[in-house]
Amino acid sequence: VLNAMSPHSKHISRCSTVTINVGLKSRRVHNEGLSLHPFQDVNIRFVISGLLHVYQRKIDSEEETCLFITHPGEIVGQLAVLTGEPLIFTIKANRDCTFLSISKSHFYEIMRVQPSVVLGVAHSVVKRMSSFVRQIDFALDWMEVEAGRAVYRQGDKSDCTYIVLNGRLRSVIRMDDGKKQLTGEYGRGDLIGVVEALTHQPRATTVHAVRDSELAKLPEGALTSIKRKFPQVRKLVLCSLLPASKSHSLVFSLIKKRVCSLCRFISSVLLSVSKVCCG
């Protein structure tokens, strides 16, 4: 199991072996007896025999696509453990399968004893990502925003979108009479400024950090690449804005309601990638 996690490690301590043996739970499933859905758990599974299929639901339908198959000697579920985010895939055993389950707490014990393990596990995640996701990862910039500081101000040029890694931010609009009005709050996993970035409009509000926050900055060029690869992004957002395109209130409402399920999907994927590479 340790070799699967860190295949390039030349030395595995006895302490590591003892730690992992204590945390292992073996399980055998028969004929589609396992189906772990998104947000269920964050365990790592090491396949002993059989196969585990990893599926993801398409954004605009209920259909699921098989992303990859985990063979004996391989692990699955490591992305959720590394990032602390819920499982974003569905794992199924389409035939008899035996695997070992390693809880998040036991995995962190292994990391404390054998730190190199995290590099091997992270590599096993990255090598399964598409070239498109890896390209987007290179375009992401990680930034810290101190409490009270503004991310951008009303009227600024919209040249990027932000993903909240952690912290809390607020969106405020300055009215014609000089009064300020709260239009939205953002937390972990939310997208900020996506509507203005997609429509190439100036920032409609001022966004500032309520407390110290970490953000991933997605530049306009990367957002354009996403739109080309997934045209639904622009289409769905613009369709949502169409009924009241002249009304700023709808834009604020859409931002407050996290824009749409599609943007949340992209946000969760990019958030996971950012934390693996930034952490």
From TrEMBL:
From what superkingdom does this record's organism come? Eukaryota
Q: According to its record, how does it sit in the membrane? A: Single-pass membrane protein
One GO MF annotation is: protein kinase A catalytic subunit binding
Q: What is its EC number?
A: 3.1.1.5
Which Pfam families does the UniProt entry name for this protein? cNMP_binding (PF00027)
Q: Which UniProt keywords apply?
A: cAMP, cAMP-binding, Endoplasmic reticulum, Hydrolase, Lipid degradation, Lipid metabolism, Membrane, Nucleotide-binding, Phosphoprotein, Transmembrane, Transmembrane helix
Tell me, which GO biological process terms does this entry list? lipid catabolic process
Signal peptide (from-to):
none
Where does the record place it?
Answer: Endoplasmic reticulum membrane
The Cyclic nucleotide-binding domain sits at 43-111, 139-244
Q: Which GO terms describe its cellular component?
A: cAMP-dependent protein kinase complex; cytosol; endoplasmic reticulum membrane
- Look at the named UniProt entry and state the broad enzyme category this protein falls under: hydrolase
Q: Which SMART domains does the record associate with it?
A: cNMP (SM00100)
| Family stated for the protein in its record | Belongs to the NTE family. Belongs to the cAMP-dependent kinase regulatory chain family.
Protein name stated in the entry: lysophospholipase
Q: What is the native source organism of this protein? A: Chelydra serpentina
